[in-house]
Write a structure and sequence with these properties.
The complex is a heterodimer of chains A (155) and B (99). Chain A has 155 residues and is mostly helical. Helices cover 79% and strands 0% of the residues of chain A. In chain A, helix 2 (26-47) runs antiparallel to helix 3 (50-74). The longest helix of chain A has 25 residues, at 50-74. The chains are: A mainly alpha (155), B mainly alpha (99).
Chain lengths: 155, 99
Amino acid sequence: MTELITLLTLFLMLIITIFIVTTKNINKMLIMFFSIFALTSWIFALMGIKFLAIVYLIVYTGAVVVLFVIAAKTTQQQYVRSYRKPLQVLISIILPILIFWSIIKSENIKTIYNKIDYKTFSELLFNKNFVIVEIISLILLASIVGAINFLKKEN
Amino acid sequence: MLFYTILALIFSLSMINFFRTNNLLVMLISIELILNSLNIILARIALKTNSPDMILWLIAIIAIAAAEVGLGLAIIIFSYKNYSKINSDEFTKIKEFFR
């Protein structure tokens, strides 16, 4: 049952992505973008990774999409133009096929569908892989400093 | 199988969207969608193979995506402030500006 709901949610995500690709209105695109992340959060919750679902809701729907809306409104974007680029379209069809085919081939289907709890998460983040988490936080800090520095320069 | 096929389609459509526009905002949205589909796959594989370590890399992807959005939107606003456009064609001008 959970598998079926997950598949239906993914199918809905696919329809929304098609809408994002075809629409020219950037406001509609951003609303759909928001719903994609909300649905992804729902998928994670269905998978049993509740921690990640909450992180997704906070980081993406709460921060990233709001930033996009602010940027779209600041730059007064309303409509976007698109161009025909056959070679790039061909690459974007072939590359995912190769990547996903290798994923499907390497997947061990017989393994059990396990749930990851909060205890495992906290041990993973703050005990076992503490250095990696610190490096990630430094990358985030560097990006914030970089963004501020970038906007400080004047023509 | 169907799970990965739908995600591959989302990945592919996002890549097509990335290539067919020169609007930086739409390009960033496409990159986010690509990373989103990869995140779902990584979570699925982590659960199927019973390896919670993979979730750490998922969190790393989320953090790097957030950092990329911060920098990307700074570039967009910078481009708009100085050239009144947010097209990728303006990148050569931005390069000249920092020389």
